[in-house]
Amino acid sequence: MSASSFFANRTVVIASMHRKEEAIAPLLSAALSVQTLVPEAFNTDAFGTFTREIDRPDDQLATARIKAEAALTLTGETLAVASEGSFGPHPQIPFVACDRELVLLCDRTHQLEIVGESLSTETNYRSQTIHSLEEAFAFAKAAGFPQHGLVVMRTSEPTFKEAPKKAPKEVLAKGITTEADLVAAVKMALAEAESLHIETDMRALYNPMRMKAIAQATQDLIQKINQCCPQCHFPGFTVVQRCPGLPCRCCGAATLLTLSELYACQHCGFQHTQSFPDSLKFADPGQCFYCNP
What we know:
Strand content: 25-35%
Radius of gyration: 23 Å
Distance between the termini: 50 Å
CATH class of the largest domain: Alpha Beta
Helix content: 10-25%
Number of domains: 3
Number of helices: 5
Number of strands: 12
Strand order of the largest sheet: 2-1-3-4-5
Mean pLDDT: 92
CATH topology of the largest domain: Maf protein
């Protein structure tokens, strides 16, 4: 049984209000032979906003799950996809910003949950406190404006409890994609205070870089769907644990590089350990705590 047979001719609800279906729907339709549906009046801002007016109800994965379940409840369908992104320092390169995108598939019929992921350093995620229109234009140019949207916020003076810098307070305008709108928002803010907070709009419809990362996460989801369990043939036979310990080529000591991966089926519970998943049987001594302390 192929993975596509679990989903062919079914309707996938895409839980989005920011045009994420442009990145997700064509890939799913081609790979799984499904129809896609974006529910009307589905307010994903209720599950958190990048501009911090509304906090996420939970962590990234749990929030994507909540979105998918809400979309299924709204439409009465049994198959949904929800996407959730987060931005911040790269886990291995802390001084580099990254975009972590999750695309979750929730299938009530088969009680399946499969998650695709993309971790990309191709992001314009940034913010700055500025004091002039000239600084706003410089920030906009570096952020890829006008193809990438911007957000302008008022700033508040820090108190003794806050960090020693001006903190974002209130959104004046977001989804800014024209010079006229940028000038208007900046002038409004600077008429009230000496500075303003400007940042990139990270909503998918205003951020082509993010849209690309969502497509990459969708491709990862499709790849995982197509990994079927050797025992029961259900889709989503994926890695649930990575075990470090690849030995150093020089001294044989265990390193933090991956020695094996554990695959598991969420349907029948079958497990399989894959040794040397990166096709390496030894680690470079540069990765060893003893040879390269």
